[in-house]
């Protein structure tokens, strides 16, 4: 995997949001210096609790947010600028599927119109070809042609997400960001959407940045896992190594709370580390390691020194004072 071409490279990315408290301006450090990459054909699972900065990362990469600091390079081009200044061919090549298809699809438009829009905006088809392409997009997400004339409210949540996926495919992207694509859906349709995404990935040679708060989902989906905590990366590793030998105390805490089916899986889990303490507010991150309020292995230096990322194995990185 490590020999594959890097298509997305994020370096030192920061995104701070100003918030006004009385006459003071404070900053929510939603992302505070993250580095990661996505390679051709892989699925990077970006995992973290709610508020850890996952969506903000997605919105910076796709260009919906300007960045506070750092660089984003896509296929060799610096795209750290906001979306409006990005070359059109790069914008086409990178798409996003949002968590809630209910709000991401225009309720006034038929499915036909929703799928037609990106094709027209990018001048990708017209006349007969346009119609055929719309039908083909709908087929690629296994929805019948009759759906073209329905409105989003007339179909189920899972089907709406399939339409959102079809819309993202319209411009023939090579890279897709999936921001919790199944977390607003019934469990019964979640597996269907995941399987569809995996099939589409093979069919169209897609690379995914798959964002989720559900670590267990990543076991069979991601090629590499990146764990975020309070706007920083705690650990990243190839999936198999990650689940076999997690190193960061936070990762171990997350993994030990995942329910498993078999005793064999139970035996593989890290020893139970109880979740303790509170997640600090990102406007008021404690000095030192931001995990120091919850870490069972906290040392005096963790209240002073913010750890740096160190490599602990092939493609395996951990940011924790226990390793430096
Ligand atoms: N537009 C914004 N203005 C101020 N704070 C924001 C804004 N967007 C996100 N945040 C804050 O940034 C942090 C990260 O949010 P987000 O990226 O949405 O997390 P996640 O997707 O992991 O749940 C949260 O504390 C959130 O409240
Ligand atoms: Mg989010």
Q: What does this entry look like structurally?
A:
The protein is α/β, with parallel strands linked by helices and 324 residues long. The protein has one domain (6-323): P-loop containing nucleotide triphosphate hydrolases (Rossmann fold), CATH 3.40.50. The chain is built from 10 helices and 12 strands. Strand 1 and strand 2 (24-39) form a beta hairpin. Helix 4 packs across helix 5 and helix 6 (157-169) packs parallel to helix 7. The protein is globular. The mean pLDDT is 92. The protein binds adenosine-5'-diphosphate and magnesium ion. Residues 54-55 line the site of magnesium ion (MG).
Question: Can you give me a brief rundown of this structure?
Answer:
GO terms for molecular function: ATP binding; ATP hydrolysis activity. 29% of the residues lie in helices and 25% in strands.
List keywords for this structure.
single chain, 324 residues, alpha/beta, Rossmann fold, four-stranded antiparallel beta sheet, 12 strands, 29% helix, globular, binds adenosine-5'-diphosphate, binds magnesium ion
Summarize the SSE layout with pairings.
Layout: E1 6-21, E2 24-39, E3 43-47, H1 54-62, E4 69-74, E5 77-78, H2 88-93, E6 94-97, H3 101-104, H4 111-121, H5 127-140, H6 157-169, E7 175-179, H7 187-204, E8 207-212, E9 224-229, E10 232-238, H8 239-244, H9 249-256, H10 263-268, E11 309-313, E12 316-319
Parallel strand pairs: 3-8, 3-9, 6-7, 7-8
Antiparallel strand pairs: 1-2, 1-4, 4-5, 9-10, 10-12, 11-12
The chain binds adenosine-5'-diphosphate and magnesium ion (MG).
Magnesium ion is lined by residues 54-55.
């Amino acid at each position: 995997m490590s020999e594959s071409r890097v298509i997305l490279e994020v370096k030192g990315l920061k995104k701070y949001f100003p918030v006004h408290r009385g006459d003071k301006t404070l900053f929510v450090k939603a992302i505070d210096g993250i580095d990661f990459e996505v390679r051709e054909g892989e699925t990077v699972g970006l995992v973290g609790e709610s508020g850890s900065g996952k969506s903000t990362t997605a919105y910076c990469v796709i260009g919906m947010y300007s960045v506070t600091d750092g660089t984003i390079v896509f296929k060799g081009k610096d795209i750290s600028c906001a979306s409006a200044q990005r070359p059109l061919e790069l914008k086409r090549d990178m798409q996003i599927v949002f968590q809630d298809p209910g709000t991401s699809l225009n309720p006034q438009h038929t499915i036909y119109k929703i799928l037609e829009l990106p094709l027209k905006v990018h001048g990708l088809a017209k006349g007969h070809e346009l119609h055929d392409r719309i039908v083909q997009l709908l087929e690629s997400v296994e929805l019948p042609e009759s759906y073209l004339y329905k409105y989003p409210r007339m179909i189920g949540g899972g089907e709406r997400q399939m339409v959102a996926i079809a819309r993202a495919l319209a411009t023939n992207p090579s890279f897709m960001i999936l921001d919790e694509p199944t977390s607003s859906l019934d469990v019964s349709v979640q597996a269907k959407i995941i399987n569809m995404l995996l099939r589409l990935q093979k069919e169209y040679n897609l690379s995914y940045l798959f964002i989720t708060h559900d670590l267990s989902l990543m076991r069979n989906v991601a090629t590499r896992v990146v764990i975020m905590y309070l706007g920083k990366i705690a650990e990243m590793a190839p999936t198999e190594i990650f689940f076999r030998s997690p190193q960061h105390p936070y990762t171990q805490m997350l993994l030990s709370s995942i329910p498993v089916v078999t005793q064999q899986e139970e035996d593989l889990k890290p020893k139970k580390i109880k979740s303790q303490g509170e997640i600090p507010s990102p406007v008021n991150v404690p000095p030192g390691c931001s995990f120091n309020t919850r870490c069972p292995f906290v040392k005096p230096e963790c209240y002073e020194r913010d750890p740096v990322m160190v490599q602990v194995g092939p493609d395996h990185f951990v940011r924790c004072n226990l390793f430096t």
